[in-house]
Design brief:
The protein is α+β, with helices and mostly antiparallel strands. The chain folds into two domains: 250 residues, Aminopeptidase, CATH 3.40.630.10; 71 residues, RNA polymerase II/Efflux pump adaptor protein, barrel-sandwich hybrid domain (OB fold (Dihydrolipoamide Acetyltransferase, E2P), Beta Barrel). 19% of the residues lie in helices and 32% in strands. The chain has six helices and 20 strands. A nine-stranded mixed beta sheet has the order 3-4-6-5-7-11-9-10-12. The protein binds zinc ion.
């Protein structure tokens, strides 16, 4: 889909979300209704900071996966620290989109319908709970914004290497602006993923909030840091500081952008999937550079006998792994992403 974005806002000084008006120079936090559970409203928190001066609208989403706590905390911290007097433009922040997952400490999916929210955007107003949540957030918040940063990290069961993801659309202007945002985070690895996705990982990146925003003309990036249900200040800070630096580059703050360290570009991703069940012993960690054909882990039985040698299909860097001892056949254990030939 390559439809041009249509500006919905009738008044440039006002921001309207589900009929709630936030006037210029003010901040408002409330709970927006996104679906119903057994006939009762399902609401999620939103904060809109409408700056004293005119400028771009930047949407910050987090908690699409309800246990990625560092990213949720970074969004909450942004809500509580950016003041209208310091802001040119508007921040629209939804820090916990998958509130049922957050409340029930459920990784990856919404426990009310077991759907992964980040596979079903732009949602469906007549669909299941997650599809309605996706539709409401996408139409009421994302499509009223000029830019989108979606915050993630390793989920409860997942280790990751911090990285920025840019979903390439083929629209040069949008892709250039997304890359520009990515380059102002102080996170080394930038992974560019086009619509051909990841072999063996169906449909993705289609259905993700950033891909669906980008193909509709809204430059967007994913920022990923933190892992395994921990709250670690270094990761909260790298996300929070990265957003503020993007705001500086968009001239939303009256400060010059801070310099960041050099970036390493990542390209095609490949998954490694178990073919047996047993006990999992990885021999590499996130950030490890691996070569094609290298053994990166084993699956053993209780006697210690190796049932399966896990082999890297490409030369690249380990971006994420699931370091859980119990493993079943058909589970994704590693994501390995290739370096461009010049950097390899
Ligand atoms: Zn996530």
């Amino acid at each position: 889909m390559r439809a041009k974005k249509i500006r919905i806002m009738p008044y440039p000084d006002l921001v309207e979300v589900q009929g709630v008006i936030v006037e210029r120079g003010s901040v408002k936090s409330w709970e927006m209704e996104v679906s119903e559970v057994s006939g009762f409203p399902l609401k999620i928190p939103i904060t809109v900071v409408n700056g004293n001066q005119v400028g771009p609208r930047l949407c910050i989403t987090a908690g699409i996966h309800g246990c990625e706590y560092d990213s949720i905390e970074a969004a909450i911290r942004l809500s509580n620290t950016i003041k209208p007097a310091d802001l040119k433009g508007t921040l629209l922040i939804t820090p916990i989109i998958n509130l049922p997952g957050f409340q029930q400490k459920t990784p990856h999916v919404c426990p009310l319908d077991n759907l992964n929210l980040n596979r079903i955007f732009p949602g469906n107003p007549k669909g299941s709970i997650s599809q309605q949540v996706a539709y409401t957030v996408f139409t009421q918040v994302v499509m009223k914004s000029d830019y989108l940063i979606d915050l993630h990290g390793g989920d409860l069961t997942e280790s990751i290497l911090p990285h920025i993801m840019v979903k390439i659309t083929g629209q040069d202007s949008v892709d250039a602006q997304s890359r520009f945002m990515a380059q102002h985070f102080d996170i080394e690895h930038i992974w560019e993923l086009d619509s051909s996705g990841i072999p063996g990982y169906p449909n993705y990146p289609k259905g993700s909030i950033t891909y669906e925003a980008s193909v509709r003309g809204i430059p967007a990036i994913v920022a990923e840091a933190g892992e395994r249900g921990k709250m670690e200040e270094q990761y909260v800070k790298v996300l929070y500081d990265g957003i503020k630096n993007v705001m500086r580059t968009l001239k939303m703050l009256d400060e010059d952008p801070l310099p960041v360290k050099g970036h390493t570009l990542l390209e095609r991703g490949r998954i490694v999937v178990s073919e047996t069940s047993g006990l999992f012993y990885p021999s590499v960690s996130c950030g490890s550079r691996v070569s094609k054909g290298e053994e990166i882990g084993e699956i053993k039985d209780l006697s210690g006998t190796v049932k399966e040698n896990l082999i890297s299909p490409v030369e690249g860097i380990v971006l994420s792994l699931i370091p859980l001892m119990a493993v079943n056949s058909g589970e994704i254990l590693f994501l390995i992403v290739e370096l461009p030939k010049a950097n390899a």
